[in-house]
Amino acid sequence: MTDTRTQLSMDPGAFAVSPELAAQTFTELSRLQDTVGEMVREARALGRTVPLGGGYAGEIGDFMATYGVSGPGSAAESLIRFGQELQKLKDNIQQALRRYQATDSDAAGGVDCHGG
């Protein structure tokens, strides 16, 4: 019996996407990033202390202020980190598209369409 080994000729973590789909994904990520920016502004508005009085209502006002902008895990902090992750995705898409275009241009330079 023969011991046969196969090896991938590409990075197993890589995947292929059409340039059109990548551009559409980039656009959708940009729209999502805009929405996240609006949510950050709204979360910061939560951070304003609202005079709701004392007792339970006062506790709710304090909670909303803390949850909105201050402390680890606040809405604003979490949304800002999410927006940064979206930007990393967009940067990776742009880099992949540049590589695709460079490879496509290099391949086109080697194609000879003469003679049939």
Can you give keywords for this protein?
rod-shaped, 3 helices, mainly alpha, 116 residues
Short synopsis of the structure:
The protein is mainly alpha-helical. It has 3 helices and no strands.
Question: What's the arrangement of secondary structure elements?
Answer:
Blueprint: H1 19-46, H2 55-69, H3 75-109
Helix pairs in contact: 1-2, 1-3
- Compute the number of strand runs: 0
Biggest beta sheet summary? none
Q: Helical segment tally?
A: 3
Strand content: under 5%
What is the string of SSEs from the N terminus onward?
Answer: HHH
* Share of helix, binned: 55-70%
Describe this entry's structure for a reader.
This protein has 116 residues and is mainly α. Helix content is 67%, strand content 0%. The chain has helices at 19-46, 55-69, 75-109. Helix 1 (19-46) runs antiparallel to helix 3. The longest helix has 35 residues, at 75-109. The radius of gyration is 25 Å and the shape is rod-shaped. It starts with 18 loop residues before the first helix and ends in a 7-residue tail after the last helix. Residues 4-8 have low confidence and may be disordered.
